[in-house]
Amino acid sequence: MALVTKNSYHHGDLRQNLIDAAIALISEEGISDLSLRQVARRVGVSHNAPYRHFEDKEALLAAVAEQGFQCLRVTMETAKQGIPIDSFQCLEAIGIAYVNFALAQPFHYRLMFGDYRYNLSKHSALAEAAQQSFMVLVNTIREGQSAGIFRSADPLSMARVAWSLVHGQSMLALDNRLQVKQGEEFVTFLKFSSQILIQGLAGNSAT
Amino acid sequence: MALVTKNSYHHGDLRQNLIDAAIALISEEGISDLSLRQVARRVGVSHNAPYRHFEDKEALLAAVAEQGFQCLRVTMETAKQGIPIDSFQCLEAIGIAYVNFALAQPFHYRLMFGDYRYNLSKHSALAEAAQQSFMVLVNTIREGQSAGIFRSADPLSMARVAWSLVHGQSMLALDNRLQVKQGEEFVTFLKFSSQILIQGLAGNSAT
DNA sequence: AATTTAATGTTGTCAGTGTCAACTTTAGAA
DNA sequence: TTCTAAAGTTGACACTGACAACATTAAATT
Questions:
Q1: Which of A63, B15, B42, B170 has CA atoms 20 to 30 A from the CA of A124?
Q2: CA distance to partner chain B, nearest, from residue A164 (Å)
Q3: pTM for this one?
Q4: A160 vs B196: CB contact, 8 Å cut-off?
């Protein structure tokens, strides 16, 4: 509670400061070289101070990932705004926003998806944040179904397919494995890709 | 050249032995705790011996990843066999085999896809192996186009979409984020998913 | 207001890591 | 047979995550 000034013995909000510092370091250098001690140094605190706020390194990284999922959810929700629910563009806009999010914060995105190994059951807040961002997709599918533009299959399954696609694109792009130059060419690919997905989601059956 | 016995000073084929040991350790414990020294110990060699065969830790892991891509390619090629080129089942079979590969060797698969960060340009053999496994997909799409079951768009782009989907499914499944129980339910999901993809790939245009 | 207490931050330590440098052994070319 | 370069070893260094013991402080209790 106590709002303490920076240079007092007690730090004020060390927990959030550590998370912020970790995000900053990850954005600069990636995650493989990130050390708890480095984070502590950046905040100007002893190498063991983080252990008062996080059980271990994994717990700090889980908090960082959690924050990432919150950002991702907001990004997707923002992308949806202003686009009619009953249009194909809605899902396309979300997909493009999703991949752009990943490309804009490559290391942070990787961290969110298992670059470091979490015990998900141990970090329920992380699991919850991830679930909420997924729900943006599910709801969009549901709305599209109500509007009659998507087939009437299980919306969860359909959302999982969409999620797999954008996640795969994001990861492969980050790995530099898609061989599509960033910029206009990449956007063209994303649109092509979402067109294929949407067409698949629209159709009614028939193998 | 010289085929030396195990217990001589010179080891015989230390390079491959190190790769094998690394794969074994990764399969057992994952990659985050893997150390070069551990690998060396497993092979029964001093902690610095690996440096005669690999520039650094990254180089060893790149070799492990490369081997993984070769396996993946064989897996996909095998899955294709016996299934008519002009049938939708061909792509489905490859997709299912792909995801099953990932699920069967979770840590190895992750390693192949950037769980450790490679300088891809520095490890050209790895890039080459990855490219070859991707070509299985591209060729399947091309053959499907010749048979008239897929639209006549750029096969590379189409293959990238397919790859993104199966890669995304694999990663999300490994992260335990799909919430689909392994087993029959999961196979059902994979088939549903490939049906959506194939329908999208088949269609001719119309947003 | 004084005292206690629990939360927070620090120092010291440990085994383990990746990598460098210097040394030793060995296989095969000269 | 000698020489040399490849292959393996030993020793060192700075760094890491984590533990234990200690110090400081904010705030709850008296």
A1: B170
A2: 4
A3: 0.93
A4: no
